Amino acid sequence: MGVDIDSCIERLYLGQILEEREVEQVCRALRLLLAEEANVVAISAPVTVIGDVHGQFYDLLEIFSIGGRCPDTNYLFLGDYVDRGHHSVETISLLACLKLRYPQRIHLLRGNHESRNITKTYGFYAECIHKYKGSAQTWHEFTEVFDYLALAVTIDDSIFCVHGGLSPSIQHVDQLRVVDRFEEIPHEGALADILWSDPDAEIRGFGRSQRGAGYTFGGDVVERFLHINGMSHILRAHQLCMEGYLVQFNDRLSTVWSAPNYCYRCGNVASLLKVDPYLQRDFITFEAAP
Amino acid sequence: MSVDSAPPAASAAGAAAVAPHYDFQDAQSGDLGALAAIADAMKSDSLADRLESLKRLGVLALAMGEERTREELVPFLDESIDDEDELLLSLAEVLGDFVQYVGGPKYAYVLLRPLENLAAAEETVVREKAVESINKLVEVMDQPQVEEFLIPTIARLSSGEWFTSRSSAAGLYAAAYGKVTDAIQAKLRAGYDALCKDETPMIRRAAAANLEGLVARIEKDHVVSFAIPNFRRLAGDDQDSVRLLTVEPLVAITKRLDTDECRQLLGESVQRLCVDKSWRVRYMVADHFVAVATNVKDRGLQDELFGVAIALMHDNEAEVRGAICTQLDGLADLAPPDAIVARLQGPLQELVDDPSQHVRATLAKHIGALCRVFGKDGSITHLLPLLLRLLKDSFPDVRLNIISKLDAVDRVVGIDSLSQSLLPAIVELAEDKQWRVRLAIIDYVPLIASQLGVHFFDEQLSNLCMSWLGDPVFSIREAATTNLKKLTDVFGVDWARATIIPKILAMATHPNYLYRMTTIFAITTIAPSVTPEIVRDLILPALEGLVTDPIPNIRFNVAKSMEPLTAALRRSPETAPLEGSVIRPTLARLEEDSDPDVRFFAHRSLLAIGSA
Lengths: 290, 612
Fold this sequence. Notes:
Strand content of chain B: under 5%
Domain Phosphatase PP2A regulatory subunit A/Splicing factor 3B subunit 1-like HEAT repeat (chain B): 304-375
Number of strands of chain B: 0
Domain Phosphatase 2A Regulatory Subunit A helical (chain B): 388-552
Protein name (chain B): Protein phosphatase 2A structural subunit
Structural class of chain B: mainly alpha
Mean pLDDT of chain B: 84
HEAT repeats (chain B): 111-149, 227-265, 344-382, 383-421, 422-460, 539-572, 583-612
InterPro entries (chain B): 2AA_helical, ARM-like, ARM-type_fold, HEAT_type_2, PP2A/SF3B1-like_HEAT, PP2A_Regulatory_Subunit_A
Order of helices and strands of chain A: HHEEHEHEHHHEEHHEEEHEEEEE
Oligomer: heterodimer
Radius of gyration of chain B: 33 Å
């Protein structure tokens, strides 16, 4: 590739954004790489799992300070890299470059914010325009990349990881494997559900979601899904947790949230989840970087 | 401007979609095409292009030659003054270095015209840069130039209608003063007087801020007849933002006067500033206290000032109390030692209990400096109890600051007296919930270790240092490995071999991969500090097991570590052959690994050691 990826990564760690043409080259190369990834990627533990980051770049650096640098530590990010925080460009640029450089060591899932419509409303588009002097080119490049991001990951065939949750259209993981993911997130259907759904301890089966996309799902749905697919646990993000994480349904589902003091005012703690080779799960909580 | 221009169509069409990218890479003075690009970019619609071309102005100037630069380029720049602030700032900076392009110091004055306009710009940073650039030019201008061109500039700016030009003017007097005749100096002083009396507070602030520079250059009589009256006037200004800026000029003035003059001429003003009703003024005084007091020279006045310092330790405002604490070291010289000990005891006790954690933290940082004045017995009796209380403070920064300044205490008192309390304090900090507090204490361990000695360390601190290697937070583990290297440098290789190396290597079989990784990092960090024999006998065998570790991250870090280990082995002819018998074959195996990152780092290490 024509771009010096190590130099890009070095600069990004210092908070310097890439030039527009570097973003173009990185995104182009990344799309080629991601096109080869399946919708559901199988990885092995150990891995450190990260929830929503939402443009909080300095907290991303904090994550690396606590969890270790990539590639020494393996990472799985569950999506929602952009919007709301003030440094979405730096965040997605660094993660994109790391994925390009160490594709085996870091995996990036798609979140509901990895979408053209959503980023036009919640800040990423505006930030690109501002940081690239009126040009929307980088936003176009990144949102193209988002179409290519994988939808789910399985860790040692036992832990199922998505951004949002489950879908009434998907009982078996194989059904997810055959979805055509290379498009803008639709308003409904399996792709939308996976990225938008939330667990709900009060209900059984699927229910209407207040978010206007996806569904809510109860513990019975989780049990059935895990049973049918021979898995032990679901990891997801998508919902703010004041304590940084939340374990539900008899330790069958966990939510990881990695944006401390969300929107710079929620005052919440964040967490990262270490999964060891024996699939033991260990949460580390942390606060916003000073 | 008559440099060949590229056809204008290019820039118009380009500006529509994405800004045209001017490729200035080959802009050497011979390349006319590139020069045309620079000239053209200066008129571009895109600010980014105009900025880029401005940075390359020197190249254009070189091509045009000195005369044309003076007669065409500089006036052209003068005309483009009406532009965005970012560009004006860049222009102000560029002009400051432009003397070489206009024909050398004797033509420096041609740059004054555009800079004068920039000095009157609306945006503060542009004005400040313009003033800075003019002052740069003055350094190379000779007296006739200064008198003919700079003085009128100063006069015009000082009588400008807008506050912008007048406030810039204040910054130009000092540099000019040294290069003019007595008669003109008198005019400059008169001009500055007017600025000090200006009805706009912003100008008076500029006058106060720049007075220090002027005081340094004027003759002694004028210090008394010109500087002091202006100082007094500004020190009594009704705006506290003006008054607080007089503290630094005050210090400059005291340096020029002798003892009697200080007492007579300044005594009253100084005291009034010390009890000013605005806390921001008192803060400035407190922060510069020692500078003011030392230069005042009169012993009686100094003694009074010491009393004032004590009063500031009781000030209502925490910032002021904090500021005076930063001056403790110098304060201790303002009176005889017995007086210091007697008068400081009470206030110090109160400061240890200050409600503001910032004040206590600042106190903790500076209290150690008092040991030298209190002497050994005085420190043990009066200061040690305070230090011990601060070591138990609830705010971690207070405790950390005491620990960071232990050497000042050690020199007078000897740390043994502290060591009983020191250890619990260190342990508590080392287990703090906030990882940054844990990180800070790790940084101090080598210092403490070197002062307390290997025995104390082995008994009390060794376990702590090893436990940090297993901290859940990566940055702590990383700092812990650096710590071990520093300890090896302090206590020596034999100690390391006996105590810490076995423990590090034991972690190589830990079930958690992050800790096995720490072993590799620790080994790599320590390798330069240990003997090649240790590498051969202890380290390489431990690594052998990790070469076939199931986790790829471990394997590629082993590959990376081969580079520093090879460097270590090469230091001795006995161990050097291991490079061929062990290192290279290992790397060759890893080059065939199933994981791409392992292959990459193995290959890279082979290249690195191969080339040596």
